[in-house]
Amino acid sequence: MNIINFTPIESLLGGLIIGLAVAILYLMRGNYTGISGIYYNVISVNKSGFLWRFLFITGLIIGPVLLSFFSYTDLGFEMPNTNPIIVILGGLLVGYGTQLGSGCTSGHGVCGIGRLSIRSIVGTCVFVGAGVVTVLITRSLGWVVL
Predict the structure, then answer these.
(1) What sign does the dihedral 50-64-107-76 (CA atoms) show?
(2) Burial class (CB in 10 A: 0-12, 13-18, 19+), 115
Protein backbone atom coordinates (compact mmCIF):
# COMPACT_ATOMS: atom_id res chain seq x y z
CA MET A 1 0.00 0.00 0.00
CA ASN A 2 1.27 3.44 -0.88
CA ILE A 3 1.39 5.42 2.35
CA ILE A 4 0.46 8.63 0.46
CA ASN A 5 -2.94 7.12 -0.38
CA PHE A 6 -3.66 6.12 3.24
CA THR A 7 -5.93 8.92 4.42
CA PRO A 8 -8.22 7.63 7.19
CA ILE A 9 -9.10 11.05 8.61
CA GLU A 10 -9.93 12.58 5.21
CA SER A 11 -11.86 9.45 4.22
CA LEU A 12 -13.89 9.49 7.44
CA LEU A 13 -14.61 13.20 7.05
CA GLY A 14 -15.67 12.71 3.41
CA GLY A 15 -17.96 9.83 4.39
CA LEU A 16 -19.53 11.89 7.16
CA ILE A 17 -20.16 14.79 4.76
CA ILE A 18 -21.76 12.46 2.19
CA GLY A 19 -23.92 10.87 4.89
CA LEU A 20 -24.96 14.28 6.17
CA ALA A 21 -25.87 15.45 2.65
CA VAL A 22 -27.96 12.30 2.09
CA ALA A 23 -29.73 12.76 5.42
CA ILE A 24 -30.44 16.46 4.77
CA LEU A 25 -31.91 15.75 1.33
CA TYR A 26 -34.06 12.95 2.70
CA LEU A 27 -35.27 14.95 5.70
CA MET A 28 -35.98 18.12 3.70
CA ARG A 29 -37.42 16.63 0.50
CA GLY A 30 -38.03 12.95 1.16
CA ASN A 31 -35.77 12.04 -1.79
CA TYR A 32 -32.89 9.60 -1.96
CA THR A 33 -29.55 10.75 -3.30
CA GLY A 34 -29.09 8.51 -6.32
CA ILE A 35 -27.09 10.61 -8.76
CA SER A 36 -28.17 8.65 -11.85
CA GLY A 37 -31.84 9.13 -10.94
CA ILE A 38 -31.35 12.82 -10.23
CA TYR A 39 -29.48 13.25 -13.53
CA TYR A 40 -32.11 11.31 -15.50
CA ASN A 41 -34.86 13.57 -14.14
CA VAL A 42 -32.89 16.65 -15.21
CA ILE A 43 -32.28 15.51 -18.80
CA SER A 44 -35.82 14.18 -19.19
CA VAL A 45 -37.09 17.60 -18.03
CA ASN A 46 -39.33 16.08 -15.39
CA LYS A 47 -41.10 19.16 -14.06
CA SER A 48 -41.50 17.74 -10.55
CA GLY A 49 -38.46 18.88 -8.56
CA PHE A 50 -36.54 20.01 -11.64
CA LEU A 51 -34.91 23.05 -9.97
CA TRP A 52 -33.32 21.26 -7.01
CA ARG A 53 -32.13 18.42 -9.25
CA PHE A 54 -30.66 20.88 -11.75
CA LEU A 55 -28.85 22.77 -8.97
CA PHE A 56 -27.58 19.50 -7.47
CA ILE A 57 -26.07 18.38 -10.80
CA THR A 58 -24.69 21.89 -11.42
CA GLY A 59 -22.92 21.70 -8.05
CA LEU A 60 -21.39 18.35 -9.02
CA ILE A 61 -19.98 19.98 -12.15
CA ILE A 62 -18.80 23.22 -10.53
CA GLY A 63 -16.82 21.43 -7.78
CA PRO A 64 -14.30 19.72 -10.08
CA VAL A 65 -14.08 22.83 -12.28
CA LEU A 66 -13.07 24.88 -9.23
CA LEU A 67 -10.56 22.20 -8.20
CA SER A 68 -9.03 22.26 -11.68
CA PHE A 69 -7.58 25.69 -10.92
CA PHE A 70 -5.29 24.06 -8.34
CA SER A 71 -2.48 21.59 -8.74
CA TYR A 72 -3.51 18.20 -7.40
CA THR A 73 -0.28 18.00 -5.42
CA ASP A 74 -1.09 21.40 -3.84
CA LEU A 75 -4.28 19.82 -2.50
CA GLY A 76 -2.38 16.86 -1.06
CA PHE A 77 -3.40 14.06 -3.43
CA GLU A 78 -2.50 12.55 -6.75
CA MET A 79 -4.79 12.33 -9.77
CA PRO A 80 -4.52 8.68 -10.87
CA ASN A 81 -5.09 9.37 -14.55
CA THR A 82 -5.64 12.52 -16.52
CA ASN A 83 -5.67 10.92 -19.98
CA PRO A 84 -8.91 12.32 -21.49
CA ILE A 85 -9.61 9.14 -23.48
CA ILE A 86 -9.42 6.99 -20.34
CA VAL A 87 -11.54 9.48 -18.37
CA ILE A 88 -14.21 9.60 -21.11
CA LEU A 89 -14.17 5.81 -21.54
CA GLY A 90 -14.51 5.40 -17.78
CA GLY A 91 -17.45 7.81 -17.72
CA LEU A 92 -19.21 5.95 -20.53
CA LEU A 93 -18.68 2.61 -18.78
CA VAL A 94 -20.01 4.01 -15.51
CA GLY A 95 -23.05 5.40 -17.34
CA TYR A 96 -23.70 2.01 -18.95
CA GLY A 97 -23.24 0.31 -15.58
CA THR A 98 -25.79 2.56 -13.89
CA GLN A 99 -28.31 1.67 -16.57
CA LEU A 100 -27.48 -2.02 -16.28
CA GLY A 101 -27.60 -1.97 -12.46
CA SER A 102 -30.76 0.15 -12.21
CA GLY A 103 -28.92 2.82 -10.29
CA CYS A 104 -25.51 4.07 -9.30
CA THR A 105 -23.14 3.53 -6.42
CA SER A 106 -24.50 6.53 -4.54
CA GLY A 107 -28.07 5.31 -4.80
CA HIS A 108 -27.35 1.67 -4.04
CA GLY A 109 -24.21 1.97 -1.93
CA VAL A 110 -25.12 4.90 0.27
CA CYS A 111 -28.92 5.04 0.30
CA GLY A 112 -29.91 1.46 -0.55
CA ILE A 113 -27.66 -0.21 1.99
CA GLY A 114 -28.87 2.29 4.58
CA ARG A 115 -32.42 1.08 3.85
CA LEU A 116 -31.21 -2.57 4.08
CA SER A 117 -32.28 -3.20 0.48
CA ILE A 118 -31.12 -6.67 -0.59
CA ARG A 119 -30.96 -5.53 -4.23
CA SER A 120 -28.72 -2.63 -3.24
CA ILE A 121 -26.46 -4.78 -1.06
CA VAL A 122 -26.00 -7.30 -3.90
CA GLY A 123 -25.55 -4.48 -6.44
CA THR A 124 -22.90 -2.76 -4.34
CA CYS A 125 -21.01 -6.04 -3.89
CA VAL A 126 -21.06 -6.47 -7.69
CA PHE A 127 -19.87 -2.85 -8.24
CA VAL A 128 -16.98 -3.23 -5.80
CA GLY A 129 -16.09 -6.70 -7.08
CA ALA A 130 -16.01 -5.47 -10.68
CA GLY A 131 -13.75 -2.59 -9.62
CA VAL A 132 -11.33 -4.93 -7.84
CA VAL A 133 -11.21 -7.30 -10.83
CA THR A 134 -10.66 -4.38 -13.22
CA VAL A 135 -7.72 -3.05 -11.19
CA LEU A 136 -6.18 -6.51 -10.88
CA ILE A 137 -6.49 -7.18 -14.61
CA THR A 138 -5.21 -3.79 -15.77
CA ARG A 139 -2.26 -3.86 -13.39
CA SER A 140 -1.35 -7.45 -14.23
CA LEU A 141 -1.32 -6.49 -17.93
CA GLY A 142 0.85 -3.50 -17.16
CA TRP A 143 -1.88 -0.96 -17.95
CA VAL A 144 -1.39 1.49 -15.14
CA VAL A 145 -4.44 3.50 -16.13
CA LEU A 146 -6.33 3.47 -12.87
Answers:
(1) negative
(2) exposed
Provide the 10 A C-beta neighbour count for residue 4: 9
| 142 φ/ψ sector (left φ>0, alpha ψ -120 to 50, else beta) | left
| Sequence letter at residue 95 | G
Q: Are 121 and 113 in contact (CB under 8 A)?
A: yes
pLDDT tens per residue across span 28-55? 888 777 777 788 788 887 677 888 888 8
How far apart are the C-alpha atoms of 139 and 132, rounded to whole Å?
11
State the burial class of residue 98 (Cβ atoms within 10 Å of its Cβ: 0-12, 13-18, 19+): buried
Query: For residues 33 and 5, which has the higher predicted lDDT (pLDDT)?
Result: 33
pTM above 0.85, yes or no: no
Q: Of 117, 124, 110, 113, which is closest to residue 33 (Cα–Cα)?
A: 110
Assess whether pLDDT exceeds 50 at residue 1.
no
113 within 8 A of 120, measured Cβ to Cβ: yes
C-alpha dist (Å) from residue 125 to 94, 113, 120: 15, 11, 8
